[in-house]
């Protein structure tokens, strides 16, 4: 009986395990969770020098409880808009790195004395 | 001889353990276990990040058929499982004197989400045992309760590590061969408060009936991930005390790790009072080199002294291993290990271990 339950469970997991709906993804153009995770890990986290917990509630990644996440979303809109201009000019895309350079907050020019 | 071998097989078949973790991945990711796992203490069912990590960062090759695997059944339900099958071959000596193959771990888990409450149900068919935990999240804080295993130390996936429980069948003449986290222990009722604070995770809880039917324990665990110069580092402490008796077990644990590029080191040390006679100590230290994605080699030293009053009962075990992840959801390990007893007769030969770990 137990073997049957295991086999049934494995079957359902493999057969139905392909369905993955994105939750609370409002700006990013991805359709799969894996794409979102890959983008966050390889672009956002690296270019800002942060870990997931900087923006996300670790017990609920989709939650907007943290202000940093809301700011990050606006920053992404800003970058996407900038990239429309870059495309019109036939320039390369930009990303967080252009300003952040691996820091949470971009450096500002030194104040004039 | 054949009969003793079958007895040995039968003995360990019922000792496959439940949920335990591979904290090296947490160290390499620079974040707590919850980055990849549904269970806050790590191990078992993976979340979106964990599934993507398994596909993109662990396996040597990702077949297109698996590249969109998510493990999600419906929006609020997820199902997954871990199965580990291990074989042990001793080149010389008594136990085992031939090839023994047994299920080392088997568990299936299902997660249900409903707003800020999530429930995790686990079934361990080889033990057999059931576990369930409900968690209420509020911002970075949570409260959870149910029937499970108390989190302590690194929670390594190998139950023969001395900081967990060591070998169940004692072959070196000691009273025990490790700390009390034996795979024979069943999940027990617990309640826990916790908080994620930046890169730290703190938890405080109590459990009843875990080590024995009358056992009552309180526990505390804290871990922090950060950097040390160019290296990633993890450091943590655990404390557990049995409160039902003044002579109850009391354990303190310090764990940590360093990671730089493809190299990582992880270790922990546990000091226990009233485990056997007086003070006992167990330690674990492992160095891993990621040759390339999917291929890792490691060297490990375990140490256990069941009573620091006596000097001739300490065990040191040295292990070398290869870890190959050919595909997502499949993990293969080969290990060679030898043991040395201080002042006593060390076991002859070496143990050759191989392990197949499949998860989904």
What value does the average pLDDT of chain A take? 84
Q: What is the CATH first-level class name of chain A?
A: Mainly Alpha
Please estimate the helix content of chain A: 40-55%
Give the DSSP E fraction of chain A (strand runs of 2 or more residues). Answer: under 5%
Taken from the alpha-carbon principal axes, the silhouette of chain A is: extended
Radius of gyration of chain A: 20 Å
Distance between the termini of chain A: 81 Å
| Relevant CATH superfamily of chain B | Porin
Q: What class, by secondary structure content of chain B? A: mainly beta
Q: What is the 3D shape of chain B?
A: globular
SS elements, strand count of chain B? 17
Distance between the termini of chain B: 39 Å
Protein model, in words:
The complex is a heterodimer of chains A (113) and B (360). Chain A is mostly helical and 113 residues long. Chain A has a single domain (2-100), classed as Photosynthetic Reaction Center, subunit C, domain 2 (Orthogonal Bundle). Helix content of chain A is 50%, strand content 0%. Chain A is extended, with a radius of gyration of 20 Å. Chain B is mainly β. Chain B has a single domain (2-359), classed as Porin, CATH 2.40.160.10. Chain B is 8% helix and 51% strand. Chain B is built from three helices and 17 strands. The longest helix of chain B has 12 residues, at 2-13. The model of chain B is unreliable at 1-18 (pLDDT under 50). The interface between A and B is medium-sized, with 30 and 40 residues.
Entry keywords:
heterodimer, A: 113 residues, mainly alpha, Photosynthetic Reaction Center, subunit C, domain 2, 4 helices, 50% helix, 0% strand, B: 360 residues, mainly beta, Porin, 16-stranded antiparallel barrel, 17 strands, 8% helix, 51% strand, globular, disordered N terminus
Task: Write the topology of this structure.
The complex is a heterodimer of chains A (113) and B (360).
Chain A: H1 2-16, H2 33-48, H3 67-88, H4 97-100
Chain B: H1 2-13, H2 23-29, H3 48-58, E1 72-74, E2 77-90, E3 100-114, E4 117-124, E5 129-138, E6 141-148, E7 188-197, E8 200-208, E9 216-228, E10 231-242, E11 250-260, E12 263-273, E13 279-292, E14 295-305, E15 315-327, E16 330-341, E17 351-359
Antiparallel strand pairs in B: 1-2, 2-3, 2-17, 3-4, 4-5, 5-6, 6-7, 7-8, 8-9, 9-10, 10-11, 11-12, 12-13, 13-14, 14-15, 15-16, 16-17
């Amino acid at each position: 009986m137990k073997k049957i339950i295991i086999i049934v469970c494995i079957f359902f997991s493999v057969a139905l395990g392909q369905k993955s709906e994105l939750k609370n993804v409002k700006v990013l153009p991805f359709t799969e969770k894996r794409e979102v995770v890959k983008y966050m890990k390889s672009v956002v986290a690296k270019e800002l020098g942060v870990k997931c917990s900087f923006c996300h509630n670790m017990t609920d990644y989709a939650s907007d409880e943290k202000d940093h996440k809301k700011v990050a979303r606006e920053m992404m809109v800003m970058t996407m808009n900038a990239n429309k201009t870059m495309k019109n000019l036939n320039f390369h895309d930009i990303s967080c790195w252009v300003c952040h350079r691996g820091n949470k907050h971009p450096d500002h020019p030194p104040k004039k004395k | 001889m054949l009969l003793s071998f079958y007895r040995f097989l039968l003995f360990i078949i019922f000792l496959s353990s439940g949920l335990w973790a591979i904290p090296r991945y947490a160290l390499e990711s620079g974040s707590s276990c919850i980055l990849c796992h549904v269970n806050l203490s790590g191990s078992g069912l993976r979340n979106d990040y964990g599934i993507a990590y398994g596909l993109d960062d662990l396996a040597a090759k990702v077949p297109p058929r698996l590249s969109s695997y998510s493990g999600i059944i419906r929006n609020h339900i997820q199902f997954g499982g871990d199965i580990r099958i291990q074989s042990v071959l001793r080149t010389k000596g008594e136990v085992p004197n031939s090839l023994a193959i047994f299920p080392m771990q088997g568990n299936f888990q299902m997660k249900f989400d409903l707003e800020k409450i999530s429930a995790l149900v686990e079934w361990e068919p080889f033990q057999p045992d059931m576990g369930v935990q409900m968690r209420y999240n509020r911002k970075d804080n949570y409260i959870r309760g149910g029937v499970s295993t108390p989190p302590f130390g690194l929670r390594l996936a190998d139950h023969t590590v001395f900081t967990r429980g060591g070998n169940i069948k004692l072959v070196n003449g000691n009273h025990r061969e490790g700390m009390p986290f034996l795979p024979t222990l069943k999940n027990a009722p617990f309640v826990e408060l916790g908080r994620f604070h930046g890169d730290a995770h703190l938890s405080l809880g109590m459990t009843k009936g875990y080590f024995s039917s009358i056992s009552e324990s309180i526990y505390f665990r804290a871990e922090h991930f950060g950097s040390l110069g160019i290296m990633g580092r993890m450091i943590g402490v655990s404390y557990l005390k049995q409160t039902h008796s003044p002579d109850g077990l009391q354990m303190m644990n310090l764990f940590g790790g360093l990671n730089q590029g493809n190299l990582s080191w992880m270790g922990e040390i546990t000091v226990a009072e009233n485990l056997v006679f007086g003070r006992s100590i167990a330690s674990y230290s492992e160095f891993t080199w990621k040759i390339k994605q999917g291929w890792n080699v490691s060297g490990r030293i375990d140490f256990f002294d069941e009573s620091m009053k006596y000097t001739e009962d300490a065990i040191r075990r040295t292990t070398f291993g290869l870890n190959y992840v050919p595909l997502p959801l499949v993990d293969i390990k080969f290990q060679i290990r030898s043991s040395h007893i201080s002042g006593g007769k060390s076991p002859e030969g070496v143990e050759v271990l191989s392990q197949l770990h499949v998860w989904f």
